[in-house]
Amino acid sequence: MYDTPFQFLVLQESGIRSIAEMAGKRVGVGPRGGTSAAYIPQFFQTLKIPVNLVFGDWAELATQVHQRTLDVLAVGAGVPFPSFVELEAKNKVRYIALSSEQIATLRLAMPELTSSRIPAGTYPSLLRHFGQLECPLRPIADICGFARRTCYTVEFAIVAAISC
């Protein structure tokens, strides 16, 4: 099983320096039904930050950020995330962290979330460790009382079905 840290990327020129400054902005959250599309809207709703959500393929959303028609890319996925690497190769980007208060608020609302750290160097411009939240599958299994072996079996079956 792998962890899925939530990550927020903006272009440096956007002037966005915090999650709160995303209010009213266009935020790409990936395809409907994905982890990001399931959680990121809840994040903004819980934090009472109104945003304009944009769903779609990650490559297309990254292109929209590059073309300046999308303000934020919000991802819940393993690192390094390919669209982030691609954007960073073409643009000066900024990674936006949740504040400690926002992390506490979200963890109270969604107890399956845990603290996470994206190590310095994961992305070329990430020069120091970056604290965020993640949604690992292990704690969900623990909360629900499933044996870890059962979770591995279920995850394997899902991945095998998707690969067909």
Secondary-structure topology with pairs:
Layout (H helix, E strand, L loop, with lengths): L5 E6 L14 E3 L6 H12 L5 E3 L3 H9 L5 E5 L5 H9 L2 E4 L3 H10 L4 E5 L11 E5 L2 H8 L3 H16 L1
Parallel strand pairs: 2-3, 2-4
Antiparallel strand pairs: 1-4, 1-5, 6-7
Helix pairs in contact: 2-3
Written overview of the protein:
- The protein has one domain: 3-Layer(aba) Sandwich (D-Maltodextrin-Binding Protein, domain 2).
- The strands form two sheets. Strands 3-2-4-1-5 form a five-stranded mixed β-sheet. A two-stranded antiparallel sheet has the order 6-7.
- α1 links the parallel β2 and β3.
- The chain is an alpha/beta fold.
- α2 packs parallel to α3.
- It has six helices and seven strands.
- It starts with 5 loop residues before the first strand and ends with a helix.
- Helix content is 39%, strand content 19%.
